[in-house]
Design brief:
transmembrane; transmembrane helix; elongated; membrane; mainly alpha; two-stranded antiparallel ribbon
Length: 114
């Protein structure tokens, strides 16, 4: 069982991670604004969302989620290919979902611009 201090630290981590992501996302959005193609800008932003916001559940503690890029990279460094594969699988699924969202956004953009 997890004590209250660990649960508080977990909550603080995710709050700080979410705030940092929002700041980083808007910085990258401003940076990508100079790209000439709308599709390229939104593709890069969708890839950023899929990469940084995809979680993977901790094998040690049920109900605790870790950013997949962080967990997968750490497990690859340690040589645990099976554990890193779980994170890469989650990243792949998130990438496919964001690809679908990106395509639907391009359709919306095309219909609005007519």
């Amino acid at each position: 069982m997890i004590d209250t201090d660990a649960q508080t630290a977990y909550s603080i981590f995710w709050a700080a991670y979410a705030i940092a992501f929002v700041v980083f996302f808007y910085m990258m959005k401003r940076l990508f604004h100079f790209l000439p193609l709308y599709g390229l800008r939104t593709l890069l932003l969708a890839a950023l969302v899929a990469l940084l916001l995809t979680p993977v559940e901790s094998p040690d503690l049920a109900g605790w989620w870790i950013p997949a890029w962080l967990y997968g990279g750490y497990e690859l460094i340690l040589g645990e290919a099976d554990a890193a594969g779980r994170a890469l699988f989650n990243l792949g699924i998130a990438g496919l979902v964001m690809l679908l969202v990106w395509i639907l956004d391009l359709v919306r953009y095309r219909l609005v611009r007519r």
